[in-house]
Amino acid sequence: MARAGLNRGRVVAQAAVLADDIGLERITLASVAKHLGVRLPSLYNHVEGLEGLRRELSMLALRELAGQLGAAAVGKAGKDALRATADAYRAYALRFPGRYAATVTAPAPADDDHNEAAAAVLQVVVSVLHGYGLAGDPVIHAVRELRASMHGWADLEKRGAFGMPHDVDVSYQRLIDHLHVSLTQYADEPAPQ
Hints:
Layout (H helix, E strand, L loop, with lengths): L7 H15 L6 H8 L3 H4 L5 H25 L4 H18 L1 H6 L9 H19 L6 H22 L9 H19 L7
Helix pairs in contact: 1-2, 1-4, 4-5, 4-7, 5-8, 7-8, 8-9
């Protein structure tokens, strides 16, 4: 019998808190059960093992990230939308490092729910890129450029890898300025052969 008040949402929420505290890779079902004050077998009533928990955590984080990006982009276009969504992405990755780590791996192709959660993030980014006049294949390339830049930045910043005695925020603003210039030029560039 499941413990009163214990449900999938509560299990995943506790895993999210733990992932942010100790790191996604260190999450175990035993650690989640311990923090919930339940026995390990109780979790199997709510998640399908560690892999199922990680999937649920990824979907939670993707939905949160999509919400943050969407809220940041509302009413903005072009460079303002780019900067706002990039700022929201950076803030989410730094504030919730474990959850953010759960967003990085692509869902399995047949996992409709997980793909829907990932698509919500993509939809916001594509909307921002439409503000640059991008459509078709250039959008895919621009999405990859933007994601690689933002993920790389967030990962390095989270690890404390920007140790030089210069203002990190100035470097970050320059990155966004360069991305803006690159995206502005995308529509005029011929496709790579």
